[in-house]
């Protein structure tokens, strides 16, 4: 295996008299950077799982893991978020990226992993490109063999262990739990493996054999245990299988709308982020547990953090074709060429997946784009700051006439209305032709016209 190492430099920092290394001791940052710009590596896998050629979206991209705004980079990737929702003028991420958009830098941010609850999304600033996560056409499963006859197919689980542990009774046994066991107790218990309930349907790395079951499957295991005096089980090796019908919105992917801004569809777009194989820090625990020293070069992670760099890579790909395009033009290109997911599968519809799933090739030729100026974002900020005591304008620009989110030249359109009441609303928009000169565009409306009357004026451009 060969690597091309081209690190220009690194710097450590001292916080509270303690020096913090510049190395990634967790693995998350390495994984994200690898998805975005990793070089091609053959025969990559996690202990043989997901064996394939691994490559980041744009290996030729240059990454700066630090002050990207000051140095004038094109795209900022943020695979993190606030724990709790914050009003925009008090949100440190929204404030920083407001400076970025003022300097012509596109910011891509993960939506968060608090789904499927509605209004669980915390990244909702209009000037930030917010990314939800989908699964892919491959998933990883485990098989649990009960006795000699039955096999249950289930997902591995992402977190850990509880109070069903009595070390003197479970030494070298597979433990059946009604809850997740406590991590430190897992290490002390010397159990051979664990079976416990989970509502999630995706796999995560664990330091010992673990199977997480639905409640129905867990009850089947309990019945089997009672049916025999010698309940033998086997947790078999994980294996990849096809995932027909993918992509689907990941259950954990945060949903909109946000309580502070109803007239804005968030997330903006969806991208792959479930069971993603990528490079991993050689000093990071692959399961995220400190006592797990099973260090690896590649690992499999899930989260909107993994979806975010996919969108960064596509944005950089589009930028390479159109270096003169603004952040809003690139954002518009990705959103208007995305392929729509089925709203019938998700009660939240667009508030689960935004404009749809990214399509890198189509995004290079969108035809029309929506250009959103910094002045329009500033109007939104001013509208909020005037009604929020203590907030300030993070720019030297003066506050123009205030505006609502639905009135800016954004790439999606939504408005909050009262249930059962009639309404009429207009969305003023301006589009720019980036396709062939003298092209003609004709508006086409999809949906159920018996329930809603929609018109586009003019209907031909």
UniProtKB/TrEMBL annotation:
Recorded superkingdom: Eukaryota
Any Pfam family: Peptidase_S8
GO cellular component: extracellular region
Keywords: Hydrolase, Protease, Serine protease, Signal
InterPro entries: Peptidase_S8/S53_dom, Peptidase_S8/S53_dom_sf, Peptidase_S8_subtilisin-rel, SBT, Subtilisin-like_FN3
Matches recorded under SUPFAM superfamilies: Subtilisin-like
Entry's Gene Ontology molecular function annotations: serine-type endopeptidase activity
ATP-binding among keywords: no
GO-annotated biological processes: proteolysis
Domain Peptidase S8/S53: 21-356
Domain (Subtilisin-like protease fibronectin type-III): residue spans on this chain: 407-461
Family affiliation: Belongs to the peptidase S8 family.
Entry protein name: Putative peptidase S8, subtilisin-related protein
């Amino acid at each position: 295996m060969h690597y091309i190492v081209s690190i220009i430099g690194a710097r450590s920092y001292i916080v509270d008299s303690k020096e913090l290394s510049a190395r990634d001791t967790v693995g998350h940052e390495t994984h994200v950077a690898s998805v975005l710009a990793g070089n091609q590596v053959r025969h990559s896998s996690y202990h043989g799982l997901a064996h394939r050629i691994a490559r980041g979206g744009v290996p030729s991209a240059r990454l700066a893991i630090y002050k990207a705004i000051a140095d004038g980079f094109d795209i900022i990737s943020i695979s993190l978020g606030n724990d709790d929702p914050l009003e925009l003028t008090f949100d440190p991420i929204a404030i920083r990226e407001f400076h970025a958009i003022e300097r012509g830098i596109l910011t891509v941010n993960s939506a968060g992993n608090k789904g499927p609850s509605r209004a669980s999304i915390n990244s909702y600033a209009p000037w930030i490109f917010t990314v939800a996560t989908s699964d892919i056409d491959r998933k990883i499963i485990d098989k649990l063999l009960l006795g000699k006859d039955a096999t249950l197919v289930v997902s591995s689980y992402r977190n850990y262990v509880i109070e069903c542990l009595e070390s003197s009774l479970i030494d070298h046994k597979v433990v059946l739990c009604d809850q997740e066991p406590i991590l430190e107790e897992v290490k002390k218990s010397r159990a051979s493996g664990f079976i416990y309930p989970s509502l999630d349907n995706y796999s995560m790395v664990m330091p010992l054999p673990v199977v997480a079951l639905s409640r129905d499957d867990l009850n089947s295991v309990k019945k089997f245990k009672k049916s025999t005096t010698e309940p033998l089980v086997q947790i078999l090796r994980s294996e990849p299988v096809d995932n027909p019908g993918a992509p689907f919105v990941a259950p954990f992917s945060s949903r909109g709308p946000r309580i502070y801004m109803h007239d804005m569809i968030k997330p903006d777009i969806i991208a792959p982020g479930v069971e993603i194989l990528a490079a991993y820090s050689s000093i990071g625990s692959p399961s995220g547990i400190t006592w797990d020293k099973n260090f690896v070069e590649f690992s499999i992670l899930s989260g909107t953090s993994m979806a975010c760099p996919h969108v960064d890579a596509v944005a950089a790909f589009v930028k390479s074709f159109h270096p003169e395009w603004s952040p809003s033009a690139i954002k518009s290109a990705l959103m208007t060429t995305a392929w729509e997911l089925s709203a019938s599968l998700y009660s939240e519809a667009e508030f689960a997946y935004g404009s749809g799933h990214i399509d890198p090739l189509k995004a290079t030729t969108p035809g029309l784009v929506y250009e959103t100026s910094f002045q329009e974002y500033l109007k939104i900020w001013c509208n909020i700051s005037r009604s929020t005591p203590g907030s300030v304008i993070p720019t030297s620009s003066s506050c123009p006439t205030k505006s609502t989110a639905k009135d800016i030249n954004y790439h999606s359109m939504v408005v909050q209305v009262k249930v059962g009441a009639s309404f009429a609303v207009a969305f003023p928009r301006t589009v720019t032709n980036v396709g062939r000169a003298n092209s003609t565009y004709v508006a086409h409306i999809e949906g159920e016209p018996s329930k809603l009357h929609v018109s586009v004026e003019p209907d031909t451009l």
